[in-house]
Amino acid sequence: MKVSETLTLLAACLLLAGSCTAPAGAPSGIAATLASAASAGTPLYGHQDDLMYGHDWNANLEPGTEMTRSDIKDVCGHYPAILGLDMGGIELGDTKNLDGNDFALMRKAAVAHHARGGIVSLSWHLRNPFTGGDAWDVSSDQAVASVLPGGEKHELFMLWMDRLADWILSLKAEDGSQIPVLFRPWHEHSGSWFWWGRDLCTAEEYNALWQMTYDHLVRERGIEGMAWAISPNYMPQDFEQWEARYPGDAYVDVVGLDCYASLNRDGYIRQMHAGLASLQRFCEAHGKILAVTETGLETLPDPRWWTGTLSEAIQGFPVSYVLTWRNASDRPTHFFAPFAGQESADDFAAWILQDKITVL
Ligand code: BMA
Questions:
Q1: Does the reported pTM lie above 0.70?
Q2: Most buried by CB count within 10 Å: which residue of 100, 196, 251, 308?
Q3: What are the residue boundaries of the structural domains of the chain, listed by start?
Q4: Class assignment of domain 3-7+35-354?
């Protein structure tokens, strides 16, 4: 089979897996798609904000324009299988997210990506409800406690979640059906740089926060088809301790690693191997799906980073998907994926073929 045929077939499988009904107890929808990619050894490739902008361009909402541009497509002729979007700012009722993305344009991107057979993944760098600061405001260790039932910011936080729910519920496919999303809240909680991080709340508070989020979006607001991903960030010390901050098997589908690269190639590979080995053990014990939920080398100065480093970092692990972070259009050195002419572009295309990475 030619490579292009393989890719077309994989895209068709993605579509099918997203729409068929699985037996009770077995994963269905997004989780089923990810589980089969993991077991087939054909991880999906994901890119944050892929259709929204690239290294030197921006999509826009003008009538008649389609969401067709993608740095990844420019480089390998295919769209990423996963489109990552960030909901930070929706909680305030803002029209744009924290990175300046229009929420209406994000909706258009999500609809277009779903129509192509892709998976939409949502992260949420939401403001700190206790201090009024941003997601990185770690000046108080009361923020998580304050949003739990009985806390002084509980009502406010419920309003924030309703605004998020309204946006997710507005994602409709052409046939009117709800577009399923992979939701990845409260990420990198093994570190302490977000207000929900390790030193900012107890494990009980973290788990209660997650369960409350799930219960509200899924049970109260009835959002169908959501899959849930938890993403500890690799920490050189005490990484295994993240396991105490896990809301329970009923609330999670995917367990993924956030781990960024530096120019220290061997150090990155060691961290990825240690982190993935730990998460793989956890996934096997809990029946969960393994992923690399965020990674990348900023500015990609190594022309062989994809086949020479990332490939080795994930080799041998049943990884369902690998997502690299965004290519900011307003910060020339803030990019984690190639664009046309970027020095690792050919190697990226080679990696997609060599490692049987699923793209659309
Ligand atoms: C970070 C950076 C920030 C951005 C945030 C949320 O890693 O890319 O510029 O605001 O993600 O997208």
A1: yes
A2: 196
A3: 3-7+35-354
A4: alpha beta
